[in-house]
Automatic annotation (TrEMBL):
Protein purpose: Accessory subunit of the mitochondrial membrane respiratory chain NADH dehydrogenase (Complex I), that is believed to be not involved in catalysis. Complex I functions in the transfer of electrons from NADH to the respiratory chain. The immediate electron acceptor for the enzyme is believed to be ubiquinone.
Protein known as: NADH dehydrogenase [ubiquinone] 1 beta subcomplex subunit 9
This protein's UniProt keywords: Acetylation, Electron transport, Membrane, Mitochondrion, Mitochondrion inner membrane, Phosphoprotein, Respiratory chain, Transport
Domain Complex 1 LYR protein: 14-68
Lineage: Eukaryota, Fungi, Fungi incertae sedis, Mucoromycota, Mortierellomycotina
Basic and acidic residues composition bias: residue spans: 86-104
Length: 104
């Protein structure tokens, strides 16, 4: 596999992953999200046999534009991820500083 093919494959994989994440922002219920994920996979599979470079570039450009249009104003963030509601909650004290909270 050539380097150009590897780069193209990674571009498409990234686009697919970002599409799934955007869909998950809109469809938090698992059954609704799975239905949308199957639809997305069908869309990607329908275009995987494109061979003409202009058609491929147009399909990627259309997908990027659609992804930008569907961006959620308040995307889902896992509770324990940075920016989530439980991020760094109840941190364990640093064992190297046993009296960090006490004044001397």
């Amino acid at each position: 596999m050539s380097e150009a093919q590897i780069v193209h494959r990674r571009l498409i994989q990234s686009l697919y992953k970002r599409s799934l994440k955007t869909a998950q922002d809109w469809y938090i219920d698992t059954s609704l999200f799975r239905r949308k994920a199957v639809e997305l996979r069908m869309e990607f599979d329908a275009k995987k046999n494109l061979r003409h470079p202009r058609q491929i570039a147009q399909a990627i450009q259309d997908a990027e534009r659609q992804l930008a249009e569907l961006r959620h104003p308040d995307p889902y963030i896992a509770p324990t991820a940075p920016g989530g509601t439980k991020f760094e909650r109840n941190l364990h004290p640093d064992p190297r500083e046993p009296f960090a909270n006490e004044e001397h």
